């Protein structure tokens, strides 16, 4: 391996060391955002019985054939059928049953005529609504005039028209969103076997950092990285824990990280990975692996330089007795966020057990560069510029400069413009790869 790593080499190293979390059984409310680990079959058809899709009257087709407003079909109303009804009345010749949306189709009935196609049992003009059963119980008896015919199955949801017993409900690998949670509940699953959402601890370092809301004294800055990266971890499907900035003291940092291991499936640090005299992350992390409680070899974090801009200094390894993966990112806001997107987001998706990692971490498109002039790019490095993507024009426009501290420009961007290693400039109109962030 060369003294510097390519972006692809570093990502491959990360993904080779990160494995999907073990499956667990979770109740549905806690399974949202998780990935199924086994196929789920349909145990009961949906709907489980023929039911009405309208408020109206359950009728036999023959009894309403040829019905018009001038010559309505006059039927005897034999009762009410509400959703959840049992002991259904049987609809015979010349009869109808008042039926509510979702109620089971009673025996003998073949179709439902909406209440708007009838006089609602009032003997007058076409009805616009159905009187509540409690307010007008007499509506469940007497006569109703039907003004239109209905074909067999009209306004009826047949049993199994959604899913049938024995069908595949959801395949292994499905991410459980609200519709999938709803389907599982509808077929009677109160819990499901999934890979849990990974727990990601985000920790920023630097004695200069102050938490937002506190007094900003001379020489200090607000801690933005831990907030941005914790939000990015949640956006990637993780449960994020943000740890306030840790001072530039190796012992303090080491103790803080060791304390966080109990609740971490992945640790992400930001800052302290360069070559400065006070960049203590290297000092702190290089010894954690060697001090594993089980005495096993192979722990520790490797710090390396990547052929990329921004984000040249990076670190990755496994620490603690459980070999918890740790990704150490640079401290400049743009560098840390770009690095998170390129390396930590795919790692989170791998922990979740998603397929096609890293190809599906973010959508990638080709777009023409819309710029006033050529954009310089360092030779031999893959550059990631902030940009705004116009899908209609298939163009991307740079936002801000190349500086790794320009968080204002990052906040306005919705894409990263990728300038490859073999280019020293990108000209207006050049077609470039674009990573979509939103």
Notes on the protein architecture:
The protein has 438 residues and is α/β, with parallel strands linked by helices. It is 19% helix and 29% strand. It contains nine helices and 29 strands. The protein has helices spanning 7-17, 28-31, 61-64, 178-186, 225-235, 250-260, 281-288, 333-352, 407-412, and strands at 4-5, 24-27, 35-36, 40-41, 51-52, 56-59, 73-81, 95-99, 111-114, 143-146, 156-157, 168-170, 191-195, 199-205, 209-210, 221-222, 239-246, 266-270, 300-306, 308-309, 313-319, 324-329, 364-369, 375-376, 382-390, 395-398, 415-419, 425-426, 431-436. The strands form eight sheets. It has a seven-stranded mixed sheet, sandwiched between helices. Strands 9-6-8-7-10 form a five-stranded mixed sheet. A five-stranded mixed β-barrel has the order 23-26-25-27-29. It is elongated. The relative contact order is 0.12.
Strand order of the largest sheet: 1-19-21-22-18-14-17
Q: Kindly provide the radius of gyration, computed on alpha-carbon positions and rounded to a whole number of angstroms.
A: 32 Å
- The strand count comes to 29
Arithmetic mean pLDDT: 90
Features:
438 residues; alpha/beta; seven-stranded mixed β-sheet; five-stranded mixed β-sheet; 29 strands; elongated
Q: Can I get a quick summary?
A:
This protein has helices at about 5-15, 30, 60-65, 180-185, 225-235, 250-260, 280-290, 335-350, 405-410; strands at about 5, 25, 35, 40, 50, 55-60, 75-80, 95-100, 110-115, 145, 155, 170, 190-195, 200-205, 210, 220, 240-245, 265-270, 300-305, 310, 315-320, 325-330, 365-370, 375, 380-390, 395-400, 415-420, 425, 430-435.
């Amino acid at each position: 391996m060369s003294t510097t790593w390519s972006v692809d080499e570093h990502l491959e190293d990360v993904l080779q060391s990160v494995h999907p979390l073990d499956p667990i059984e979770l109740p549905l409310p806690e399974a949202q955002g998780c990935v199924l680990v086994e196929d789920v079959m349909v145990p009961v058809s949906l709907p489980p019985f023929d039911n009405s899709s309208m408020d109206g009257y359950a009728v036999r087709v023959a009894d309403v054939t040829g019905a018009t407003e001038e010559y309505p079909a006059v039927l005897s109303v034999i009762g009410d059928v509400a959703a959840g009804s049992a002991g259904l009345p049987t609809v015979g010749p010349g009869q109808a049953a008042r039926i509510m949306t979702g109620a089971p189709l009673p025996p003998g009935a073949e179709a439902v005529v909406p209440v708007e196609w009838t006089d609602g049992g009032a003997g007058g003009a076409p009805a616009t609504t159905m009187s509540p059963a409690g307010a007008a119980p007499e509506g469940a008896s007497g006569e109703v005039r039907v003004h239109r015919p209905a074909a067999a199955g009209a306004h009826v949801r047949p049993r199994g028209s959604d899913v049938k017993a024995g069908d595949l409900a959801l395949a292994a690998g499905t991410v459980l969103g609200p519709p999938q949670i709803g389907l599982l509940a509808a077929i009677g699953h109160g819990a499901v076997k999934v890979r849990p959402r990974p727990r990601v601890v985000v920790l920023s370092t630097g004695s200069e950092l102050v938490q937002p809301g506190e007094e900003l004294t001379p020489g200090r800055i607000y801690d933005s990285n831990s907030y941005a990266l914790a939000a990015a971890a949640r956006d990637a499907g993780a449960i994020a824990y943000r740890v306030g900035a840790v001072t530039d003291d190796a012992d303090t940092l080491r103790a803080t990280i060791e304390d966080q291991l109990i609740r971490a499936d992945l640790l992400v640090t930001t800052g302290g990975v360069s070559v400065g005299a006070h960049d203590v992350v290297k000092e702190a992390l290089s010894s954690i692996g060697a001090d594993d409680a089980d005495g096993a070899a192979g722990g520790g974090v490797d710090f390396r330089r990547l052929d990329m801009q921004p984000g040249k200094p990076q670190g990755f390894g496994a620490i603690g007795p459980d070999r918890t993966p740790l990704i150490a990112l640079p401290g400049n806001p743009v560098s840390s966020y770009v690095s998170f997107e390129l390396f930590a987001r795919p790692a989170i998706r791998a922990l979740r057990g998603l397929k096609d990692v890293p190809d599906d971490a973010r959508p990638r498109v080709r777009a023409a560069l819309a710029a006033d002039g050529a954009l310089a790019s360092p030779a031999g490095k893959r550059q990631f510029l902030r940009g705004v993507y116009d899908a209609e024009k298939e163009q991307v426009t740079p936002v801000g400069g190349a500086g790794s501290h320009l968080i204002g420009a990052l906040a306005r961007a919705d894409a990263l413009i990728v300038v490859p290693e073999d280019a020293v400039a990108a000209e207006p109109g050049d077609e470039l790869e674009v990573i979509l962030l939103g």
